[in-house]
Specification:
Elements: H1 8-17, E1 23-26, H2 33-41, E2 46-50, H3 56-63, H4 70-86, E3 93-100, H5 108-116, E4 123-128, H6 137-140, H7 157-160, E5 162-164, E6 170-172
Parallel strand pairs: 1-2, 2-3, 3-4
Antiparallel strand pairs: 5-6
Length: about 170
């Protein structure tokens, strides 16, 4: 997770000075006070925060034991929103995301109700569990709805995005 890199703020600031918009997808439990300040003050453009359960048991089953403390994760999301508001900043644009799958589908409505009512969240997104090419049978087995025919799935990310790894290597969208 990008939020664990000790120079993250520096990297975001550098990219911004080069005219690049920066985007992160992260686990909200990793939003420490320092990270929150880095994300807002260094100019992160967009932040997707994934919470895939309304209950601790579900979140832990999907994302691991570290994701089981939903209350703490929610506090950290609110701390980010409060800091962004205090700094009178419009960025990062904050998207709360729920990856719907067989394990959590019964929690979708409760999750949506909770996060659509939080002031400061810029967008709320529920998406399907998917492999980019649609051909991974293990991932497709977790989906609520059948995957499209892999021959008809086109991902534009390799042509529109780049990922910078922790050590500075650049790779097509990950």
């Amino acid at each position: 997770d990008s939020l664990t890199h000790h120079r993250l703020g520096e990297f975001i600031h550098y990219a911004g000075r080069q005219g690049l918009r920066t985007y992160l997808s992260a686990n909200p439990i990793l939003l420490t006070d320092r990270r929150i300040k880095d994300l807002v003050d260094c100019g992160l453009y967009e932040l997707v925060l994934s919470l895939d359960g309304a209950r601790a048991e579900t979140s832990a089953a999907i994302r691991g034991r570290a994701a089981s403390n939903i209350e703490e994760a929610e506090k950290r999301v609110h701390a980010l929103l409060e800091y962004r508001h205090a700094r009178n900043s419009k960025t990062p644009y904050v998207i709360m995301q729920f990856v719907r799958q067989l394990r959590n589908q019964d929690e979708t409505e409760a999750w949506l109700e909770k996060w659509t009512s939080v002031e400061g969240i810029d967008a709320v997104k529920v998406k399907s569990f998917v492999a980019w090419n649609g051909g991974d049978k293990r991932i497709n087995a977790l989906r609520v709805t059948p995957a499209a025919d892999p021959g008809y799935i086109v991902c534009d990310k390799p042509w529109t995005s780049v990922t910078v790894l922790w050590d500075g290597r650049r790779v097509p969208f990950w």
